[in-house]
Design goal:
Shape: elongated
Distance between the termini: 24 Å
Order of helices and strands: HHHHEEEEEHEHEEEHEEEEHEEHEHEEEH
Number of strands: 19
Keywords: Hydrolase, Metal-binding, Zinc
Cofactor: Zn(2+)
Strand order of the largest sheet: 1-2-6-3-7-17
CATH class of the largest domain: Alpha Beta
Number of domains: 2
Domain Peptidase M20 dimerisation: 210-311
GO molecular function, one term: metal ion binding
Pfam family, one: M20_dimer
CATH architecture of the largest domain: 3-Layer(aba) Sandwich
Strand content: 15-25%
Length: 417
């Protein structure tokens, strides 16, 4: 005979919505406030790294520090924080939960303490509140809920809180790949703020199933010096760099049915400076966001074509920004809408909000590119929304932080229980 009461108990324990509802709203937001009040610009994450480690350790979740080192370009030394829930079936998938701990540098235009964590009208204010301490709080709470639940997960859940996402190279996520931490993972959830940086207008609940990639042209323009009173006797590298910058914005960029169009944005012209001298050389940095199919060779060839058509008097050398290794680049990726991870998160959204999620794609780049492109993992971004990210007045919607924690929890149960 089947024990009906036992079946009911088991059903309740493995119900995604029932477990998600056990996440406490106020405790989640209190955690978020604590995170926001810790100053943690990239390359200066020691305090928040220790906080996340201690928070997990106090709950018996066996965290470990994972060393991050990049001595050649940045000289950075730091730590990610990792923790793992072990599943019962070695053949079941392993799910990566990821968030970054760092923020951009504190913006001077704030009219209040940028680390206040002030709450007003359902918004929590502070540098990094939306990008992405809201998402970090979400996976911390979700991971704790899964660990505390009376439920057997078939597959592992790997928690990763990483450093330097806002820095130049995403060194924390890069180290996960370098050290083969992601090798046994089968899918990834990243809780970056989603709708605010989507390719089209979206509202939560939303699942972002891919992102454009990025190259950074690092171009040297070399002219010929002359006295500034007789510019016709020289070749002005700054002028030619300006012409090249303008021409590069006219590149016929790639397009993708899901990711949209690529883009080109000149960032900096650096050179000259001598009194009364025609600038002999300068450096031009140009951002190039790309879609699937736009490879390094394609991107280089596009720039070479522009240079050839301009016929500049200056010599031009096209290269890309120096990186710790040749593969440390943000490649574009798309996750199949029918992937089991997407189905599980749809279930999670339905269980938590009663809605079907909007589906979108990210306009910029982040650690998710490393997981989705370099590591080849089905990767979904699900995060809280807000405004003014990277700027003064940044805030995150508190209810959406709690929803994300619950959706991630429910999605994990739907995929792994």
């Amino acid at each position: 005979m089947t024990d009906g009461s036992a079946d009911t108990s088991n059903s309740e324990r493995t119900d995604p919505g029932a477990l998600a509802e056990r996440i406490d709203h106020d405790e989640t937001i209190e955690l978020l406030q604590e995170l926001v009040r810790i100053r943690s610009p990239y390359f200066e994450e020691e305090a928040i790294t220790e906080f996340v480690y201690d928070w997990l350790d106090a709950r018996g979740l066996d965290p470990e520090y994972h060393a991050v080192s990049e001595p050649e370009i940045t000289g950075f030394e730091g730590n990610n924080v990792l923790a793992r829930l072990e599943g019962t079936d070695p053949d079941a998938p392993t799910l990566l939960l990821n968030a970054h701990m760092d923020t951009v540098e504190l913006v001077e235009a704030w009219e209040e303490d940028p680390l206040s964590g002030r709450i007003e009208d359902g918004k929590l204010y502070g540098q990094g509140a939306c990008d992405m301490k809201g998402g970090l709080a979400g996976i911390m709470v979700a991971f704790e809920a899964l660990a505390a639940a009376d439920i057997d997960l078939a597959g592992d859940v790997l928690f990763t809180a990483v450093v330097d996402e806002e820095g130049p190279y995403g060194l924390g996520a890069n180290q996960l790949i370098r050290d083969s931490v992601t090798d046994d993972c089968d899918a990834a959830i990243v809780t970056e703020p989603g709708p605010i940086l989507a390719q089209r207008d979206l509202e939560n609940p939303a699942l972002l199933l891919g992102a454009r990639g990025r190259f950074l042209y690092d171009i040297t323009v070399t002219g010929e010096a002359a006295h500034g009173s007789q510019p016709e006797k020289g070749t002005n590298a700054v002028v030619d760099a300006g012409r090249l910058a303008a021409a590069l914005t006219e590149i016929d960029v790639g397009t993708h049915e899901l990711l949209g169009d690529g883009s080109v944005c000149p960032l900096k012209i650096e050179g000259g400076g001598e009194t009364l001298s025609v600038p002999e050389a300068c450096r031009l940095l140009v951002d190039r966001h790309v879609v699937v199919g736009e490879t390094e060779d394609v991107v280089r060839a596009d720039a070479e074509t522009v240079v050839a058509e301009l016929g500049l008097d200056s010599a031009v050398e096209i290269d890309f920004r120096e990186a710790p290794a040749p593969d440390v680049r943000y490649g574009p990726y798309v996750t199949d809408a029918d992937d089991p991870l997407v189905d599980a998160l749809r279930t999670g959204v339905g269980a938590v909000t009663g809605d079907d999620p909007a589906i979108g794609y990210f306009s910029s780049v982040g650690d998710f590119n490393y997981f989705g492109h370099r590591a080849g993992l089905p990767t979904v971004i699900v995060g809280p929304d807000g405004e003014n990210i990277h700027g003064a007045g940044e805030f995150v919607y508190t209810d959406e932080v709690v929803d994300v924690a619950r959706i991630v929890t429910a999605g994990c149960v739907a995929l792994l229980a």
